[in-house]
Design a protein that fits this description.
Helices cover about 30% and strands about 25% of the residues. It has one domain: Rossmann fold (3-Layer(aba) Sandwich), CATH 3.40.50.300. The strands form two sheets. It has a six-stranded mixed beta sheet, with helices on both faces. A three-stranded antiparallel beta sheet has the order 2-1-4, covered by helices on one side. The protein is an alpha/beta fold and about 250 residues long. Helix 4 crosses helix 5 and helix 7 packs across helix 8. Keywords: ATP-binding, Nucleotide-binding, Transport.
Length: about 250
């Protein structure tokens, strides 16, 4: 791992997670009897059509408002509360419009009253390709640049549990591949839950793959080779096709 992306402190052991239960929104069930295990120290990828509750699952793990009612349990293998150990990247970049790139990347530390590690922040900003834009505010950045700022911010948090909701969706193909590789490198050893609509992304990054659909949750066996996988490897391409068919309601 590059020292430019190395964490500021030793990583606390990343636990396995589990979410079980039912969720209702506006009196209607969004999912029922869900049992989602998240393995420790690896990437779990959750795919599925829009509207089945993937982002809701992330918000439940993070302890955020969901606008609905959850009847179930969220637990960690070490018995410690989950929400206080999470770094969360939402679909929207949620950048503070009055702060420049450095200010947004270090926002978490500032909100906690901590002195931010500016050297590490600038190194991460360079790694996401924004070294020439550190003084710019969000209004001066493109959508893809804003998403890279948000990615640098979540990587800066150095938490054992990381929740990512479509973190690369606004990026072009080349930048997306580069940011996938960066995130995978920096988040080594963390427990990561990635929500994505992209089968290729899930196969490239995932140690464990799940599809959430209207009729429930399905586990799909990941390729035998470890991530991060080559996009043109035969088993990667075969699994992409299987996931695509599964997302269309055909057997995976």
């Amino acid at each position: 791992m590059s020292t430019a992306a190395a964490p500021a402190q030793a990583l606390v052991s990343a636990p396995a997670l589990r979410l079980t239960g039912d969720f209702h929104h506006a009196g209607r069930p969004l999912f029922s009897g869900l049992d989602l295990p998240i393995s420790a120290s690896g990437w779990t990828c959750l795919l599925g059509p829009s509207g089945v509750g993937k982002s809701t699952v992330l918000r439940l793990f993070a302890g955020l408002d969901t606008g609905g009612t959850f009847d179930g349990e969220i637990s960690a293998s070490d018995g410690t509360p989950v929400a206080t150990r999470i770094a969360f990247m939402a679909q929207s970049d949620l950048l503070a419009p009055w702060l420049d790139v450095v200010g947004n990347v270090t926002l978490g530390a500032r909100l906690r009253g901590e002195a931010p590690d500016l050297a590490r922040a600038r190194a991460l900003i360079e790694r996401v390709g924004l070294a020439g834009h550190v003084d710019k505010r969000p209004a001066s950045l493109s959508g893809g640049m804003r998403q890279r700022v948000a990615l640098a911010r979540v990587l800066m948090e150095d938490r054992p549990i990381v929740l990512l909701d479509e973190p690369f969706a606004a990026l072009d193909a080349r930048t997306r591949a580069e940011m996938q590789e960066l995130a995978f490198e920096v988040l080594e050893g963390r427990t990561v839950l990635l929500v994505t609509h992209d089968p290729a992304e899930a196969v490239r990054l995932g140690h464990h793959l799940f599809i959430l659909a209207e009729d429930g949750l399905t586990r799909v066996e990941a390729p035998a080779s470890p991530p991060i996988r080559e996009v043109d490897a035969s088993e990667t391409m075969e699994m992409q096709a299987r996931l695509f068919h599964a997302l269309r309601g055909r057997p995976a």
